[in-house]
Each structure stands twice: as structure tokens, then as C-alpha cells.
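Exercise 7b. C-alpha cells:
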């Protein structure tokens, strides 16, 4: 194919916005710059909001993920790219998910989103499918966009950064950031997107992942090898804030606090999120053996100290100026398996979710094994959370006799079997053998195992840790009703970034009453949505907290930091906000996304179900592992006198209660959100939020 070219006038960012988006249609070879209206900014803010609105306008009801109409949208947000405020380098990828059939939004670090904005565009939307493998280059130095053949570029993500830098910016690799997905995304529904940035000190590219829901699978379905953006010049005021001095003041204060407190709290600048392993294990919430158990004697092997020894020392921020600096890397790791066996490589991570998903949840407590899995998932373009939860489900099905050696192709897929787990991972990436089934995800595995191997559908419904078709992220929720709701009521499926309440509920006990849990399942998803509208990371908000936070009226909300975020938004955009106004921004987009789910044929009460294992013990082994706790609860609640009763009887009584509590929670949360008891936003709610567009109103009327 001949390269498709588009030239545009370079401009400046004004108060966090470029006021235009970039549209590419690969089927037609068409490239356009499109304006962003003031109404678009007022209603959808940026980031995830822009992505959802563009995707809605581009698709039709029930558009499938592999339809050429489906788009991959990437946006940053008005605050994204700021170098004076921590955690400001995020991009948000939005598309219709191969796993769920509804929009997925995935928040990711790396330089691409900020570079895209500073190259001239608030958002990128890619529609259609190329006839052959292509690379898209957005050149922010020259004001030029090109679609050209991929040629002999490598398919593995860890090699693409260097290759694209040599092609487009050989003298300054720091000027290039890329988005790619490897061969695993070609052969599974759990493909991730790798967002790159160049490390000037280590002279290598690093990668962060937009992992959830299969956005990488969509990229590869469109025959895109990579998207690259080039930007050679950066400055501290490149966002052109409305009030630079106000921004400097609040940013300076926040950065100072992080530098002082992080070494005394979680040491994220040294060990990233690995500190969570010990905490989750101590509070019985670390998933082990497919979420059967919440702790394990060997968990410390996966904690902060083993990774402290393995992480390469030095600064590891995934965006310029971020003082949290939690993105760590392992140098010269010797691979033992797969196509790169024997090679020494840089490995980005692992972070907590990978450690728990592909370590403790598989019954494997070897940090070097987890590092190897981490590397291959990244370069194959596979989401470590979905891989972790899907393989754990397959392991339990094998151990319980639901599938056998014939089904697995001879693999002894038991918990703790390192060799078998690695073989499955490489099979997923090639689309071969048993791994081809695992790569379809837990929801589809349940169908395949029942149809082809005679597995018990009821048992699999209880132990298959997915909701809406998306695999659970890595927290055991049996004793946290709040986190059960945080997973089941999440719009895109059970991902903790929407309502990470496990820590506040199960560790700190900051929401002990049922009413508090229901109220927080309104407040926290709305507040957390705000970060994805603005191109921000959530970690600075509540992972490093003020020294006196525990003595405040609402310690779970970290109100001092919320006030700083209000200052930040006001200083950049010139629009004065407080907490109520920020929550309203989020509520508009959140309700719009729920309506988008409805447009796709989902978004009702029945779609907010979770497997019983997320609520309580499915098997006798699970009950007996916490028998004293469960017996005590049965007695305290007046459900059953456990004395002399069989485990089966006790499990049945506990299950009836916990399932009823979850349904009661749905009722309460729907009321708080202004939805019907079937989980549909009311006309009054969408009018209040000014998202009462004619097609959305008609959709609600048709589904009421």
C-alpha cells in the first residue's frame, strides 16, 4: 500500500486542551482532524469521557468488537501531561471489548497520551481495518500523520520500541512513544496494549499496559502493528494552564509530601505495589488456588523484600516529574522458556496484580517464575490479570476432575506446576492446544468445558471468577461485601480501579455498616472515574496519605488530597471546581457508560451478578479452612446453630444469607445512583446530568 499522509497545522495547548481530535479510518485510508466543542468538554471533560462519546457516535446498537465500525480510542485529558503534579501521565483506552461486548476503559501510564496531546490532539479514534499490517505515525514535530506498511518490524512488543525509534527518531529515541500488542493478542480475547517510554539513563524502552478487556485484541484485529507518536520538545508549561503560579504552588506541596511520606509508608518508589502482597496475605484477602483461600505460608516469597533485591535501582516514573515513581524494572533477567529462552532482558514490573494472579493464585510462590510470566505476557500482549485468573480456573477444573489429560493435551495442570503453567502461557500466545481455549477467557471456557468435556455447569458457575465476561482482578472478597459490590456493580466488569474498597473495608474497617457500604459504592466509583477523565493516576490520592489523615472526619476519602485535585483542575482549566462539581463530572460519564452498556444489550440487574465464590465458600475445603469464623457468623446472625450440623448444611445456610445480602446491596446502590431496581438510569437522572440526548432518551424509554 502507498503511505497515506495527512498534514495539520501545529498549535498550542490552551488550558489543558488542543480542542481537536484525530480520526483515522483504516478501511478507507481516511485521516481527519475534528473539532472539540465547548459542550463536549463540559459534558465529557476528557480522557475516558471523550473516548466513550466518540465510540458511541461511531457505532450502532450491539456493534461487535470485531466489526469495522468499532473504534479504538485513546485520550489523555486536560490535566494529563502536567510535569508539576504527581501521577499526571495517564492515557485511557476505550473500545468495545471482545470479552464483554460492552465498552472497556483501561487506564495506562507511558508517554503516549501526553505526547498525543502535545502533538496536537485531545483524542485519537481509529476505525475500520487495514488490508495489510500497518504502522501509524503521528509526527508532532512536523504536523504530519502517516499510515504506512509495517514491513519487517518485529511482532513482539519488547522489540518494537527500539525498531520504531530507529525508523522514526534514530537520534532521539526519547521523542518516540508507541502503542502495540504482540502475537498473544492475535490469538486470544485478552490482548493488552503496551504503551512505551524511553529511559535515557538505562538506554532502553519501558512499557506499561492497558490490560483489561482485550483492547490489544482490537488493535491487532485492525491489523495495526503499532501506533507511534513523535514529540521532540517538552516544557513544564506545555499544557498552558490558566494560572501557572497556582499550579506550581499546589504541585510543589503535593510532591514535597510524597517525598517525605512514601519512604515511611509504602516505599512505592523502591518496591512499587509489591508491598500489598504481605498486607493482603495478613488480612486473608490474597487470592490463592483460584480464590479458594486468602493466605498462604509462602506468601512472603512474593512480597516486597524479594522484589526489592531484584528491582534495578533508580528512578522509575512512567511520566516525567512523577514523584511516586512506582514503575520498577528488572535488569538482565535470564529467560528459561519460550522463544527467547537463554536471552537476558529487561522486565517491567511485576506489580501486585501480576504477582497475585500468576503467583499465589496458581499456587506458585517463586518470584523469578512470576518475573518470567510477566515478561512474556507483556511482549505477547496479554493481560496478566485475565491470564492469571483464567489459568487458575483451568487448574481447579483439572484438579476437581472437570477436565482431564485428554482435554489439556497431556498437561498436568495442577496448582504449583510451573512447567505446565508456562506451557499454557506460550500456547495462548500461539493460539495452540489447550492454551487456545484458556485464551478465550473464563466465561467461554465454562461453555467449552461443559459442551466438550462434560464439566458441571453449576460448579463452574460458582468457581469461575468472571463477571460480565471479564476475569476478576486479584482480591479475595468473601469477607468484604463492599468489594463484592465493587466488582459486580462495576460497569466494565470486575476491575478494582472503579471501586477498590477491599483495603478500606477488610483491612481498615472504615465502612462497618451496610448503609456505609452502599453509600461508598456510589461515592468511590464516581470519584475514581474523575481520574480517568483527566489523565491521572489514582495512586498519589490514597496510597500515600497525609500524616494526620487517620484523625480526619473521613479518612477513607483523603479529603486534603481531594482539595488539592480541585486546585489542580481549577488552575489548569480556569474552571473553578469543588468536590461536588468534580463528582458531577464523573456522574455524567458514569451514567452515560451504563447507558452504553444498555445499548449493547447489557446493563441490567442480571448483568451485575458475581460467582458465589466471590461471596462465600463453594467447597467443603473452603469452609473448613475458616470453620471457626463461619460457624461464629452463623451463630451471631441467628441463621443456624452450627453445633452438630454437617458442613454441607452450614454452607447452605451461609450461602442463602450471603446471596440475599448481595441482592439487597444491589437495591441500595441502585437507589443511590438514581437507577431503577433493574439497574437502568432513570430519565430524571439523565436529564439532571444534561446527558438527555435524543437517542439516549429513546434507549431508556425502550428499556424501562
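Sequence design result:
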Amino acid at each position: 500500500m502507498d503511505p497515506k499522509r495527512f498534514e495539520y497545522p501545529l498549535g498550542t495547548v490552551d488550558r489543558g486542551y488542543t480542542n481537536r481530535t484525530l480520526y483515522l479510518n483504516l478501511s478507507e485510508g481516511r485521516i481527519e482532524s475534528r473539532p472539540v466543542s465547548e459542550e463536549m468538554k463540559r459534558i465529557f471533560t476528557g480522557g475516558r469521557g471523550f473516548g466513550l462519546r466518540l465510540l458511541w457516535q461511531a457505532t450502532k446498537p450491539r456493534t461487535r468488537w470485531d466489526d469495522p465500525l468499532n473504534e479504538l480510542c485513546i485520550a489523555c485529558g486536560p490535566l494529563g501531561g502536567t510535569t508539576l503534579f504527581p501521577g499526571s501521565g495517564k492515557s485511557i483506552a476505550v473500545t468495545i471489548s471482545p470479552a464483554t461486548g460492552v465498552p472497556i476503559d483501561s487506564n495506562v501510564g507511558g508517554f503516549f497520551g501526553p505526547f498525543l496531546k502535545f502533538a496536537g490532539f485531545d483524542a485519537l479514534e481509529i476505525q475500520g481495518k487495514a488490508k495489510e499490517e500497518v504502522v501509524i505515525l503521528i509526527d508532532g514535530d512536523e504536523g504530519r500523520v502517516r499510515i504506512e506498511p509495517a514491513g519487517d518490524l518485529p511482532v513482539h512488543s519488547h522489540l518494537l520500541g527500539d525498531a520504531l525509534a530507529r525508523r522514526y527518531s534514530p537520534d532521539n529515541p526519547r521523542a518516540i512513544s508507541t502503542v502495540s500488542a504482540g502475537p498473544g493478542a492475535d490469538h486470544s480475547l485478552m490482548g493488552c496494549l503496551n504503551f512505551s517510554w524511553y529511559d535515557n539513563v538505562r538506554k532502553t524502552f519501558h512499557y506499561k499496559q492497558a490490560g483489561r478487556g482485550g483492547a490489544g485484541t482490537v488493535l491487532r484485529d485492525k491489523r495495526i502493528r503499532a501506533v507511534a507518536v513523535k514529540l521532540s520538545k517538552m516544557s513544564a508549561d506545555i499544557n498552558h494552564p490558566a494560572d501557572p503560579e497556582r499550579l506550581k504552588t499546589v504541585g510543589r506541596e503535593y510532591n514535597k509530601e510524597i517525598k517525605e511520606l512514601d519512604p515511611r509508608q509504602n516505599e512505592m518508589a523502591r518496591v512499587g505495589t509489591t508491598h500489598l502482597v504481605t498486607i493482603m496475605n495478613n488480612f486473608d484477602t490474597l487470592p490463592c488456588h483460584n480464590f479458594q483461600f486468602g493466605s498462604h505460608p509462602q506468601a512472603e516469597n512474593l512480597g516486597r523484600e524479594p522484589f526489592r533485591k531484584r528491582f534495578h535501582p533508580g528512578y522509575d516514573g512512567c511520566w516525567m516529574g512523577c514523584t511516586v515513581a512506582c514503575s520498577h524494572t528488572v535488569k538482565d533477567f535470564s529467560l528459561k522458556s519460550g522463544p527467547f529462552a537463554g536471552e537476558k532482558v529487561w522486565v517491567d514490573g511485576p506489580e501486585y496484580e501480576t504477582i497475585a494472579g500468576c503467583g499465589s493464585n496458581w499456587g506458585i510462590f517463586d518470584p523469578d517464575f512470576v518475573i518470567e510470566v510477566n515478561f512474556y505476557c507483556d511482549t505477547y500482549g496479554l493481560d496478566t490479570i485475565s491470564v492469571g485468573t483464567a489459568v487458575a480456573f483451568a487448574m481447579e477444573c483439572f484438579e476437581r476432575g472437570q477436565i482431564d489429560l485428554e482435554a489439556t493435551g497431556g498437561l498436568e495442570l495442577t496448582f504449583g506446576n510451573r512447567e505446565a503453567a508456562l506451557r499454557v502461557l506460550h500456547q495462548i500466545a500461539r493460539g495452540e492446544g489447550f492454551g487456545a481455549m484458556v485464551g478465550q477467557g473464563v466465561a467461554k471456557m465454562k461453555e467449552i468445558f461443559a459442551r466438550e468435556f462434560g464439566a458441571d455447569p453449576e460448579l463452574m458457575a460458582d468457581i469461575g471468577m468472571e463477571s460480565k465476561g471479564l476475569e476478576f482482578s486479584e482480591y479475595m472478597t468473601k469477607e468484604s461485601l463492599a468489594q463484592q459490590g465493587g466488582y459486580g456493580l462495576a460497569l466494565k466488569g470486575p476491575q478494582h480501579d472503579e471501586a477498590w474498597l477491599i483495603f478500606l473495608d477488610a483491612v481498615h474497617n472504615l465502612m462497618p455498616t451496610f448503609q456505609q457500604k452502599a453509600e461508598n459504592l456510589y461515592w468511590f466509583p464516581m470519584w475514581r472515574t474523575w481520574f480517568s477523565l483527566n489523565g491521572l493516576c489514582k495512586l498519589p490520592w490514597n496510597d500515600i496519605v497525609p500524616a494526620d489523615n487517620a484523625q480526619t472526619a473521613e479518612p477513607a476519602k483523603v479529603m486534603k488530597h481531594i482539595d488539592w485535585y480541585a486546585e489542580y483542575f481549577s488552575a489548569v482549566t480556569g474552571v473553578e471546581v469543588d468536590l461536588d462539581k468534580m463528582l458531577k463530572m464523573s456522574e455524567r460519564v458514569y451514567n452515560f457508560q451504563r447507558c452504553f452498556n444498555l445499548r449493547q444489550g447489557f446493563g441490567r440487574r442480571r448483568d451485575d451478578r458475581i460467582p458465589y465464590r466471590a461471596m462465600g465458600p463453594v467447597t467443603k475445603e473452603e469452609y473448613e479452612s475458616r470453620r471457626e469464623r463461619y460457624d461464629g457468623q452463623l451463630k451471631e446472625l441467628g441463621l443456624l446453630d452450627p453445633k452438630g450440623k454437617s458442613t454441607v448444611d452450614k454452607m447452605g445456610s451461609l450461602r442463602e444469607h450471603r446471596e440475599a445480602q448481595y441482592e439487597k446491596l444491589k437495591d441500595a446502590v441502585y437507589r443511590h445512583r438514581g437507577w431503577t431496581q433493574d439497574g437502568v438510569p432513570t430519565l430524571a437522572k439523565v436529564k439532571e446530568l444534561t446527558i438527555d440526548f435524543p437517542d439516549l432518551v429513546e434507549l431508556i424509554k425502550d428499556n424501562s
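Instructor comment: The chain has a mean pLDDT of 96. The chain has 29 helices and 17 strands.
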